[in-house]
Specification:
The chain is 39% helix and 14% strand. By secondary structure, the chain is an alpha/beta fold. 48% of the residues are buried.
């Protein structure tokens, strides 16, 4: 029988030690790991001693990690990650953990990467346990099983194991509905001075401190290029969200809030109430959110601006209605245009996310995507066209497998090198033509950006050369222009000091409660 001890509360006395390893992203703009933060807080309610080893902040090597683990003893050593990071360091970190850990410790993995292809990830990492989906309840039950409580590991919902070379997967548990009673993340376990000072966004002053939080979990949509960690959407009470913002502002001086929700604006009543409370209960702050074009109009835009919103990340995705329909975006080109115009009227910066390479795309739609960027660009970020990647777990990945373009997760990770490369050709255009057109378009977008900002064409030339070497010489170390610019290379804002570069890759924050 599959068991569950949820909901989480402080009546349990589990004891023991847990370590969360935060892998290195090989950059200095590190997002606080909300998943481990939430899970650590829940474990501490059950009298579990929790620690964090932040390779991202301190750039610890795998040898450093091995030396650290050899001198310690933990019940669980946990690591979560996004799929694109797996081959870029995470795989070797997993091998290090597996090599050093003795039989007295369990190695646990989770998050978007592992949850999308559990068997592959278990075999590649050698992990003892894989947690599917959000982790607060599951990790507590795994710890109870490890500590000898009346629960067997294979009976825990959302756990996947390998036993005698066979995959043992328990049914998925229901998503957590009591979000408003969960403890706030265990910020004190982490180097908060580093996490609050490392993120630098457009329209942010040099002295501002930025930090992530969530007001919702999940998404209302099922876009074909996206892997859904859990189905549906749940919304935290606005009072709880603002209470967390006040705590971060008071304790850590955070005054720029990065909402990492997949979808922060769920309904008109929800967002307007949240914005009213922000205005009433917080000192002047700034924040940024993600939103859909279908839930954005002048009323919401004005309320966002009045509450301190300086930037919206919007998934426009394409200028083609046919492709929008292929993506299952449930939006129109006209709504895309209206949203961009609304943001401009309100004076809110926008992240113009445009991807290319879906079925129905062509070189002409790529050019029209670039025209959309130039038409509505406010120059908060250096925006270019990125080819679509069929990440495991997404409907697009399943299409690639069905078409014979990929054989499965192992084939994907063998081929994946860089998210600016086109892995699977869904459009039928020769690859040489695709990369030549991408190069010409992205070169033009970069030059257009620098001509409208500061005229530093030497930096622009370097970025263009990076794309050239990626497309034509296979230099996969190039990671796009948003990670190579400084604060003087984005738009200035009259209400703040010079804007600062946005160094975050789309959807790669450690978000929600997946490990």
């Amino acid at each position: 029988m599959i068991k569950s001890t949820a909901p989480i509360n402080d009546s349990l006395d589990v004891g023991g030690r847990v370590l969360f390893v935060i892998p290195d992203n090989y950059q200095d703009d590190n997002v606080f790991p909300l998943g481990p933060g939430y899970m650590a807080a829940c474990l501490r309610l059950a009298n579990v001693q929790v620690e964090a080893y932040c390779m991202d902040v301190f750039h610890h090597s795998n040898d450093d990690l091995a030396a650290f683990l050899e001198g310690e003893s933990y019940d669980l050593v946990c690591l979560g990650y996004m799929g694109p990071r797996f081959k870029r360091g995470v795989q070797e970190t997993c091998k290090t953990i597996r090599r050093v850990l003795g039989p007295e410790s369990w190695f646990v993995i989770g998050g978007y990467g592992p949850s999308s292809c559990p068997e592959f990830m278990l075999r590649e990492t050698g992990a003892d346990v894989l947690v599917m989906g959000e982790g607060e309840e599951t990790i507590l039950e795994v710890m109870m099983a490890k500590r000898g409580h009346d629960i067997k590991l294979e009976e825990i919902q959302s756990v996947v194991l390998i036993r005698d070379d066979e995959v043992v997967a328990a049914p998925r548990r229901r998503t957590i509905k009591y979000l408003n009673t969960l403890p706030m993340p265990a910020w004190d376990l982490f180097p908060m001075d580093s996490y609050t000072s490392s993120l630098k966004f457009a329209r942010m002053a040099d002295t501002d401190k930025a930090f992530p939080l969530i007001s919702t979990r999940g998404c209302t949509d099922k876009c074909s290029f996206c892997f859904r960690l859990d189905s549906g959407i749940r919304v935290r009470k606005p009072e709880q969200v603002v209470a967390e913002m006040k705590e971060l502002n008071t304790r850590w001086g955070v005054n720029y809030f990065y909402f990492v929700d997949e979808l922060a604006i769920v309904s008109r009543s929800q967002i307007l109430k949240l914005l009213a409370l922000i205005r009433e209960q917080l000192p002047p702050i700034k924040f940024r959110m993600d939103c859909r074009v279908t839930m954005f109009d002048d009323e919401i835009a004005v309320a966002l601006k009045d509450a301190g919103c300086v930037f919206l990340n919007i998934g426009f995705e394409t200028s083609s209605q046919e492709v929008l329909d292929q993506m299952n975006k449930r939006a129109t080109v006209e709504q895309n245009v209206a949203a961009a115009e609304t943001a401009r009227r309100a004076g809110i910066g926008i992240g113009i996310n445009m991807i290319w390479g879906m079925p129905g795309d062509s070189l002409d739609t790529m050019r029209r995507n670039a025209e959309f960027i130039k038409r509505f660009n406010q120059y908060d970020q250096i925006r270019t066209i990125r080819p679509i990647t069929p990440y495991p777990g997404s409907p697009l990945f399943n299409m690639a497998v069905q078409n014979g373009d990929l054989s499965g997760p192992e084939d994907f990770y063998d081929k994946f090198r860089n998210s600016d490369l086109y892995m699977v050709n869904f459009v039928g255009v020769p690859e040489t033509e695709i990369y030549q057109t991408l190069y010409e378009i992205n070169k033009d977008l970069i030059y257009d950006h620098f001509r409208n900002i500061d005229g530093d064409m030497e930096v622009a030339e370097g970025l263009v050369q990076g794309f050239h070497d990626l497309y034509f010489r296979g230099d996969t170390e190039f990671r796009g222009p948003r990670l190579l610019t400084t604060n003087k290379h984005v738009r200035a804002d009259s209400a703040t000091t010079q804007g600062i570069w946005d160094g975050l890759e789309l959807k790669e924050g450690s978000r929600l409660s997946g490990m």
